[in-house]
Design a protein that fits this description.
The complex is a heterodimer of chains A (111) and B (115). With 111 residues, chain A is mainly β. Chain A is 0% helix and 53% strand. Chain A contains no helices and twelve strands. In chain B, the strands form two sheets. In chain B, strands 2, 4, 5, 6, 9, 10 and 11 form a seven-stranded mixed beta sheet that branches. A four-stranded antiparallel beta sheet of chain B has the order 1-3-8-7, with no helix packed on it. Chain B is globular and about 40 Å long. The chains are: A mainly beta (111), B mainly beta (115). Chains A and B meet through β5, β6 and β11 of A and β5, β9 and β10 of B.
């Protein structure tokens, strides 16, 4: 069974600085998707960034980028120029059939 | 385009009762998935429906069931409620066709409290 591990239950960063959230996963598949979802206090899960496993190039969405290391089964999220609105729970997720989530990292932005 | 709509948003039940939650996916989305979110267990996959058929199922007891209608709307039912069923139940929809990028779009969830 696929598993996703987020080893950092909580992280904090100063506003405008950079923070990296870690994620590792376990799978025997070669074709799959990886995601970072954000869940603000309002609860609705929002997609932050997506990576297809067959693409070697790391995905980037504005201030958000990933470091995808397929052989190491690692998928970290880097948030640059952190903003107060980035404060949320961040979930790493793996999808081949169903979506498997990590336990989440609570990110706090300090003004 | 309207997002994923879940009803009700909040509900309180007592042990032994049953509950039905509803989810209307984004127009054109044929796949609907359900997830249970609790502080202790995190986000756990319940089941996925596609074209009125259950396509995948998580590791939950038979008290948890679901269905999907021809308009892609989905319902999930929990019978004989237990205290441990208190959770946020999230519904997500996706295109699930050959252009599918794998992205799921989530609703705001239904908060169930079992007393």
């Amino acid at each position: 069974a696929q598993t996703v591990t987020q080893s950092q239950p909580e992280m904090s960063v100063q506003e405008a600085e950079t923070v990296t959230l870690s994620c590792t996963y376990d799978t025997s598949e070669s074709d799959y998707y990886l995601f970072w979802y954000k869940q603000p206090p309002s609860r609705q899960m929002i997609l932050v960034i997506r990576q297809e496993a067959y693409k070697q190039q790391n995905a980037t969405e504005n201030r958000f980028s990933v470091n995808f290391q397929k052989a190491a089964k690692s998928f970290s999220l880097k948030i640059s120029d952190s903003q107060l609105g980035d404060a949320a729970m961040y979930f790493c997720a793996y999808r081949r059939d169903s979506l498997v989530f990590g336990q989440g990292t609570r990110l706090t932005i300090n003004p | 385009k309207a997002g994923v709509t879940q009803t009700p948003r909040y509900l309180i039940k007592t042990r032994g009762q049953q509950v039905t939650l509803s989810c209307s996916p984004i127009s054109g989305h044929r796949s609907v998935s359900w997830y249970q979110q609790t502080p202790g267990q995190g986000l756990q996959f319940l089941f996925e429906y596609f074209s009125e058929t259950q396509r995948n199922k998580g590791n939950f007891p038979g008290r948890f069931s679901g269905r999907q209608f021809s308009n892609s709307r989905s319902e999930m039912n929990v019978s004989t409620l237990e205290l441990g069923d208190s959770a946020l139940y999230l519904c997500a929809s996706s295109l699930a066709d050959r252009t599918n990028t794998g992205e799921l779009f989530f609703g705001e969830g239904s908060r169930l409290t079992v007393l």
